[in-house]
Structures are given as C-alpha cells and as structure tokens.
Design goal:
about 180 residues; alpha+beta; four-stranded mixed sheet
C-alpha cells in the first residue's frame, strides 16, 4: 500500500518478507488502484475489490483463499473490506457456482477479543477447545521465522507492532473458519 506515500518501500518490504517465508517474488501481486487506497480508515468498494479478487483467483488457478473475518482481526477497514468482497462474491449464486467449479475454498482468520489476542501461547488451550475448521499452532522455529518476516516491514514497525510480535497469539496461533 501507499499509506504515508511509502508504496515502493512497502512493496520491497513485502517481497523481502515473502522471500523469508519461501514465497517467490513472482508469486506476489501488489494491487495499486486509486479507488482502493491503503488507508486503515477507508472502506474499499466491495464490487470493485471482489472483481479484482475473482480475476486473480481465475488467472492463477487458486484453490484456497485465506483472508480476514468480519472483524478484520484489528478492526482495520481494509481487512474488513477483503472479507466483504469475498463474502459478496461467495454469496452471489453465479459466483458461488464459479467458486465451486474452480474448486476454490475460503478460510477466514478468526478475530478474537483483546484479552485473547495478547495472551500469546496461553491461548492454545482455549483455541483447542473452541469450534473451528482449521487450527494452526506454530513451533518456536516457525514463530521466529514469522517474527523475522514481520521485521522486514520496517516502515510499519511502530511501537505497538513490537508488542504485537511479542505477545499476540496471531504470531503463533491461528484459528480459521470456512466461508
């Protein structure tokens, strides 16, 4: 995104982060569209975003999309817009049929309350007991790899993101539901 006019910097940081996670730059797509600004306070146009997402899914034979749920994990308007776009496309009957024909499924990262969000590994028992369609619990090595990938986003590493990297369950525990 181009929030604070840092688009090129953030694009390079994303590519570095993906590289650390084993994702080649050729598999990274950055969408820079004037009607979809990188701004945590702006809700994106659902139809426009849904069209971009569907086109990307079709062009790349994608069979699984992982995105945010209605809470956007942190209430971030852009994250919530992604959920709305997929829900829009998924609920429209002809698009739903297209998703089924493409064999594409959608998993939603579950938003949790602030207490659970910041109790780190202590959330494992709770996450294991609650209903979900998928649960990922990272090893110490995988968690450190995720932290290294987050550190690539230097332009976004404000004080609260350091706290996030230390204490957020999302650095090691992710529960997902099928759309």
């Amino acid at each position: 995104g181009n929030y604070y006019n840092q688009g090129e910097i953030r694009k390079k940081e994303l590519e570095q982060s993906c590289f650390l996670l084993g994702i080649p730059a050729s598999d990274v797509t950055v969408l820079d569209h004037r009607d979809l600004p990188d701004n945590p306070a702006v809700e994106w146009d659902t139809q426009l975003l849904a069209a971009f997402v569907l086109k990307h899914i079709e062009a790349n034979n994608i069979n699984l999309v992982v995105t945010f749920d209605a809470g956007g994990v942190s209430g971030h308007a852009n994250h919530i817009s992604l959920y709305a776009a997929l829900r829009y496309k998924y609920c429209c009957s002809e698009i739903f049929i297209l998703f089924l024909c493409l064999g594409c499924r959608v998993l939603l990262l579950e938003s949790v309350n602030l207490f659970r969000k910041y109790i780190s590994v202590l959330d494992v028992p709770v996450s294991c007991l609650l209903p979900r369609d998928a649960l990922f619990i990272l090893t110490e090595e995988e968690t450190e790899q995720a932290r290294r990938a987050m550190r690539c986003h230097r332009s976004q590493l404000l004080w609260f993101r350091h706290i996030y990297m230390l204490f957020s369950r999302y650095m090691m525990i992710n529960s997902l539901r099928l759309l």
